[in-house]
Amino acid sequence: MAQLFNRSANALAKVTLIVGFLAAAGGAWASYEFYHSPYMTRVDLVREQPVMFSHKHHVEGLGIDCRYCHTSVEVSSSAGIPSTHTCMSCHSQVWVDAPILEPVRASYRENLPLEWIRVNDLPDFVYFDHSIHVGKGIGCTTCHGPIDQMPLVRQVHNLSMKWCLDCHRNPEAFVRPREEVFNVNWQPPADQLEMGGRLVQEYGIETKTYCSACHR
Amino acid sequence: MKGNRSDQTVRLDLRKVREALERRTGRDYWRSLEEVLETEEAQDYLRHEFPAEADTFADPVGRRQFLRLMGASLAFAGATACVVQPEERIVPHVRAPEQLVPGRALYFASCVSAFGFAQGLLVESHDGRPTKIEGNPNHPASLGAATAFAQASVLDLYDPDRLQTIQYRGRIRTWTQLAAALETEFERFRLAGGKGLRILTGTVTSPTLGDQLLRLSENFPEARWVQYEPVSFDHVRAGRRAAFGQNVHSYSRLEHADVVFSLDADFLTFGPAALADTRAFSAKRRIRSPESQMNRLYAVESSPSLTGAMADHYKATTSRAVSRAAVALARNLGIQGLPDVDSPVPWLEAAARDLQNHSGRCLVLAGESQPPAIHALTHLMNERLASLGSVVVVTDPVEARPELQMHSLGELTREMRDGEVEALLILGGNPAFDAPADLEFAAALEQVPFRLHLTLLENETSRGCQWIVSQSHYLESWSDLRAFDGTASIVQPLIEPLYRSRSAHDLLKVPLNETGQSDYELVRQVWRRQWGEEDFERRWRRALHDGWIEGSALPVRQLSVDADAVLAAVARVDLEGEALELNLRPDPTVFDGRYANNAWLQELPKPLTKLTWDNALLASPALAERLGLSNDDLVEIAAGDRRVEAPVWIQPGHAPDSLTLYFGYGRSVAGRVGQGTGFDAYPIRTTATPWSIPEVSIKRTGRRRRLVSTQHHYSMEGRRLVRSGSLEEFRRNPDFVSQLAPEMPEKYDLYPNWNYPGYAWGMTIDLNSCTGCNACVAACQAENNIPVVGKEQVASGREMHWIRIDRYFEGSVDEPAVFHQPIPCMHCEQAPCEPVCPVAATVHSDEGLNDMVYNRCVGTRYCSNNCPYKVRRFNFLLYSDWATPSLKLQRNPNVTVRSRGVMEKCTYCVQRISAARIQASLEDRKIRDGEIRTACQQTCPADAIVFGDINDPNSRVSRLKASPLNYGLLTELNTRPRTTYLAKLKNPNPEATTE
After folding, report:
1. Residues facing residue B168 across a β-bridge
2. Distance from CA of residue B589 to its chain's centroid?
């Protein structure tokens, strides 16, 4: 019986194996990269909001505290988005005729809420709680980035589970003194790890890494 | 693949059942007749956790029915994991309401009507949406507990089938148009003094509604107001009247009763005081050490009830024999002048002596189904036993106007038929469906020129009325109600009416010329009159905050029983008769039919039969054997010329000479859930025999109707799951429970032990106080967004309840002891589910919970396969309704709504644990014992479930786990469950057992 395969088939088989393996690995790598790309995670994406509200102006320019608008950040899972009434408490006095604020005035006049687009959007199966993070010395800017430098808010971190766990496994690298939590200019000191370790003790920080801490 | 269940149902040979049981020795528990007999079907269930697996996918009818039920399209968002997250909006308030913090729940006190009486509630509200019902710990009729009905009532609020507008002959009308039409009617009635005007309501205890109705009677002297409910307590009322010579109200204080004798009285589930009675009764059954004291319950019953299942001495017999037992008991207690009867109960004399020995601390109770004379006789017995005034107390009537409802409705129907009624306003209820059949209410209704029905859902009665007025749910409207002891509560709304709906108060304002007033002002006005102007605001705010009005309980009256009148009444009762008897009872879950469209209640397994989505005719094994009946057989029951066709369900422990038929099913106009479920039993219920028909005949039709019960599912193959003994036994040998444990294999731990430096959560369930009432199952469903699956899916063993109540029998088929065992997840220390998950979707937490991570689960079902307790539930189809907008409002925002292909199970209410942990951590303290209460624990009327930190030796749960009665399920598998049980103890009277 004649040879079924030519001698060159050996080389072809080897090449096919190698190319196949490379293609699979490359595909895996490409999809990983794609999945973590800003296109998917929406990092740095600036979205059009009903009102072109500038955190840069209100926080850096005017020095308004985070809690003036995000009132429930210390007591609730949700930080809270200010009601139109909160906006109008100032804007019934200043910039009363500014065209850019017309949607706010319209909302107040017609009793129809403003609809903001969520920027830092965790998946719905994640139950994040602001109050405990703020209460244990995690600053706003640790997750939200330099909010005082953002004319329009963008997402700074990819909000992946790995990113959450980086801190939950090493809280001392991120924790800051409680009085600095709302300080947008705070920078970690040179001895962050040492200070962080002390604060973790002092605040009784018990970061959870089991599933039901966030998923339920 | 196995075929459909009904195709292969094996007809039961009951003689074989008896033989099989006689062969068994020792303490033997069995779950169903099929299992005892080891039929092919039962064996099949043991082998296959999910029988008939491929059926539903292949069967287009089942699938279509499922779709119709859920009202959802299967447009599942399949591939969302691979695309960019959809954009989400944040919609803040324009003006933020006071006290509302986004992300935090608020609780408001209100109350729900049960049998017309108040049950206090605390209602959880998320961003203005009422989502969950809890009991109000300070309310006398709740004491923190809520019934399954109350738990499910929040679903009624969001029922997509609710009437959304006022209708006239099927056309949409406005309130103004209706008010004008009513005005025209009442103009005429004003001239005629109300002649021909009739108003029909349910039992009214509301001071405000009562006030409106009584003022209406003053303005329209010829008008009449009639109250009717199918479960009306007429016999109780008439019995009190016969005993005390006047209209009074009475209730019992079981906390003072050491011995209770029940004559057909299902006081643990039935009646306005059931929650308070359960709490008091179970408190006296809680045994912690051999020194503890325990109450004793004797029960003689014509139809099996949960109260009977709790009894230390139980006798099932006919309704008439229960009456005979009452007379015999009275004779034994030394009451003269009673007819001489044979006692059907062997231990009656011993029980009578026991009662006399506990004079002043005992109680005789009769159920609504017993004739009024027997009720009067129990009052006389209680007086002789020195319990009247202490264990049973008498007050003025709690209802706005007590009446014998069946009689009044009869009068009303006669007038309607004779054309004397010109306008009938039906405020709530469904008399066209649930009135006694001999009245032919629906036909009489057609004779009335002006007919109006105020109702939440369209039903049989609204079909017969020109005007249908959409009713506001109690969570949408202001009112007030009185509880069983007279304590008044304000019904406080939590949400603006979702639709264009109105209340009963609104309708009555038209003839009273007060339409300008809101219900809120009306209720306040009534209480302002009571309290006076001074201090009114403070008292009003307090009443709203507390959920009950201090000092509004009715004062206890000292009355004596008119013995001669009682004896004369008893002499008129027909006590004899040996024919086959039919008992009529409201269904345990859809009640008189009013909850037929509530999917949670439809799917709730009935406590004793474990049937879902259906009612049945219950027959004793002995009778079934005699007549050659088997489960699912359709029979025709005839009483005179009234007939009903019903499928048979064989109920061990049922009285041999009687049958039980549950009414409330078979609604013809009910909505997408209730339509076409079960059969209508009302056609056999008449004014003369509302509760038991002394003589019926039964005939096989040769056809069958498939009933679906959850009792076969997840069978545990006859292991020592419920451990029980007597109080005597426990005192003699306090360690008897641990001695019942099967041999532990030599200790082996393949996996390393866990360390719990912080909290370690655990639970105990006291089988001794659990009554099997189902409140925990309903509470869990509401708290954890658990979907319903429908009858077809339950038949395949796919019900989704995270906590189920297993029911076991012990002893003979004729008079078995009944045990209930709630089974949530055991949260095993060495959990068999964890190592088999290929994607680590079920893992151990640092606090000992078996976490279930839905977003990781790929649906292999290995975990469920490996769970020895069978507590895991799989979403075979998209069971959660993702489409109906109104249902989304009910969901708990702190629990994921699961999708298709995901495993789920009890989490120990991990959302509540997280909330408490965060709160405690923010306050730099440990979580206090009792701070976290799981949904099942919180609602439990018997306080049988205790949850807490087992790392803390002083926590309540740790102390219970140290009790000699504590034991775990299947501990021989070395699973080391976190959920453990306290063994069941009975307290039989030694004298009675030797007799």
Report:
1. B171, B467
2. 6
- The first and second tokens of residue B36, run together, are 């005892």
Contact B219, B511 (CB under 8 A): yes
Considering the entire predicted model, what is its pTM? 0.91
Q: Please list the residues that pair with B451 across neighbouring strands.
A: B424
User: In angstroms, how far is CA B495 from the centroid of its own chain?
Assistant: 25
Residues of A in contact with B93 (CB under 8 A): 83-85, 113
Rounded CA-CA distance A142/A84 in Å is 27
B85, B104, B910 member nearest A76 (Cβ): B104
Amino acid at B649: W
**Confidence band of B714 (pLDDT split at 50, 70, 90):** very low
Pairing of strands B581-586, B697-704: unpaired
Three-state secondary structure of B552-563: CCCCCECCCCCH
Does B93 contact A113 at a Cβ distance shorter than 8 Å?
yes
**Of A122, A145, A204, A210, nearest in space to A171 by CA:** A204
Neighbour-count burial for B563-573, b at 16+ CB within 10 Å, e otherwise:
bebbbebbeeb
> Tokens at residue A59, please?
């926080």
| B101 contacts in chain A (CB < 8 Å) | 72, 75-76, 80
Cβ atoms B216, B189 nearer than 8 A: no
- Hey, of B843, B891, B921, B932, which one would you mutate to test binding to chain A, going by the most A CBs within 10 A of its CB? B921
Q: Which two tokens stand for residue B361?
A: 């601390």
**pLDDT-derived band of residue B76, with 50, 70 and 90 as boundaries?**
very low
Q: What is the pLDDT of residue B14?
A: 67
A134 contact residues in B (CB cutoff 8 A): none
Nearest CA in chain B to A120: B88
Give me B377's structure tokens. Answer: 């006789």
Q: What is the pLDDT of residues B173-230, one digit of tens each?
A: 999 999 999 999 999 899 888 899 999 999 999 999 999 999 999 999 999 999 999 9
Task: In whole angstroms, give the CA distance from residue B694 to residue B690.
Answer: 11
User: Which residue, among B277, B241, B279, has the nearest Cα to B262 in the 3D structure?
Assistant: B277
Structure-token match 């968002």, residue found: B77
CA pair distance B162, B168, nearest whole angstrom: 16
A13 alpha carbon, distance to own chain's centre: 48
Q: Residue B298: in which H helix or E strand, if any?
A: strand B296-301
Residues of B with CB under 8 A from a CB of A: 84-85, 87-96, 101-104, 758, 843-847, 849, 851, 853-856, 894-896, 907, 910-911, 914, 918, 921-922, 924
* Pairwise CB contact (< 8 Å): B94 & A206: no
Spatial CB neighbours of B291, under 8 Å, sequence gap ≥ 6: none
Left (φ > 0), alpha (ψ -120 to 50) or beta: where does B468 sit? Answer: beta
**Phi then psi dihedrals of residue B681, to 5 deg:** -100, -5
Q: Strand order of the sheet with strand B979-982?
A: B945-949, B761-766, B979-982, B966-967
Query: Does the model's ipTM exceed the 0.95 cut?
Result: no
Taking every pair of C-alpha atoms in chain A, what is the biggest distance, in angstroms?
A: 99
DSSP state at residue B370? S
- Pairing outcome for strands B29-30 and B804-810: antiparallel
Terminal-residue alpha carbon distance, chain A: 66
